[in-house]
UniProtKB/TrEMBL annotation:
GO terms for cellular component: cytoplasm. The lineage of its organism: Bacteria, Bacillati, Bacillota, Bacilli, Bacillales. This is Coproporphyrin III ferrochelatase. Pathway: Porphyrin-containing compound metabolism; protoheme biosynthesis. Keywords: Cytoplasm, Heme biosynthesis, Iron, Lyase, Metal-binding, Porphyrin biosynthesis. Fe(2+) binds at residues 186, 266. Fe-coproporphyrin III binds at residues 15, 32, 48-49, 127.
Length: 311
């Protein structure tokens, strides 16, 4: 890594996922701030991983692929200027590990970016806080991309997916069937509204921009994957939304989880298994858009956002 000296470091941050079934308990304990899950909670999470892909962890591979894809794109747009490092919120390499790797490589200037387009103090803000503290401690000057939810290439990539998804759904459910597009994202505790947090507003802005570009008028926003805590979380949840749509006579739904950028548990289980099963019970055909993963337009969104922040 000695060839990194003089380059701008890029810390690519994401939520993190276990590397194997053996790591699930430690991962879950980290999410719960050091409190181990109950045996029931642990079994439920392991069952979900087993259900999606037989205990394989797609997010780990997808995140590695996105970091590699961003490095390739930066090498094309600004040869020899940037070097990417990875930092995860709840698994190794942790955010602090990524910053330490930069320092070891001789990096003096860096940019941090999160694989999530929308800013909340409870999500992206937390990643930035941890990276910033470690960077200051190690003498790295670090700037951050806080959000990129309206980057034209992100909107283009999502629009293509909605358009393709609707075409496939029309073949499956029939052209004449009333179809609703449901944009979704990970719920957060309701208290973010009182805090004036921009998360909800940014998600609605992305949804509206994609709907307009795709020529979709019949759409709404819904939440998913809320945590199980005593405090209220943002709703309605997608399962409740599907029940309401069924009452309205909607027969086909395309879910566009714009708050997520890759295939992982919240998409592969919460939508593809749980929401799909609920829709089936209600007589609704449910499909979802393909995730961004290493889409070239998404890689360009990240690269251009990093380069702008570096300036």
């Amino acid at each position: 890594m000695s060839n990194a000296a003089g380059k701008i470091g890029v810390l690519v941050m994401s939520y993190g996922t276990p590397e194997s079934m053996d790591d699930v308990e430690a991962y879950y304990t980290h999410i719960r701030r050091g409190h181990p899950p109950t045996p029931e909670q642990l079994t439920e999470l392991k069952d979900r991983y087993e259900a999606i892909v037989g205990g394989v962890f797609p997010l780990r591979e997808n995140t590695n692929g996105q970091v590699a894809g961003l490095q390739d794109k930066l090498d094309t747009l600004a040869p020899g200027q940037y070097v990417c490092f990875q930092g995860l919120k709840h698994a190794r390499p942790y955010i602090e590990d990524g910053v330490e790797e930069m320092a070891k490589a001789g990096i003096k200037k860096a940019v941090g970016i999160v694989l999530a387009p929308h800013y909340s103090v409870m999500s992206v803000g937390g990643y930035i806080k941890r990276a910033k503290e470690k960077a200051e401690e190690l003498g790295i000057a670090m700037s951050f991309v806080e959000h990129y939810h309206l980057h034209p290439k992100l909107i283009q990539a999502l629009t293509e997916r909605v358009t393709n998804g609707l075409a496939a759904l029309a073949k499956e459910a029939g052209e004449a069937v009333r179809t609703k597009v449901l944009f979704s994202a990970h719920s957060l505790p309701e208290k973010i509204r009182e805090m004036g947090d921009p998360y909800e507003k940014q998600l609605l802005e992305t949804s509206a921009a994609v709907a307009e570009a795709a020529g979709v008028t019949d759409w709404q926003f819904t939440w998913q994957s809320a945590g199980r805590t005593r405090e209220p979380w943002l709703g309605p949840d997608i399962l409740d939304t599907l029940a309401a749509l069924s009452e309205e006579g909607v027969k086909a739904v395309l879910v566009a989880p714009v708050g997520f950028v890759s295939d992982h548990l919240e998409v592969l289980y919460d939508l593809d298994i749980e929401a799909k099963a609920e829709a089936e019970k209600l007589g609704i055909t449910l499909d979802r858009i393909a995730m961004l993963n290493r889409d070239p337009l998404y890689m360009e969104t990240l690269a251009e956002s990093v380069m702008t922040a570096a300036e």
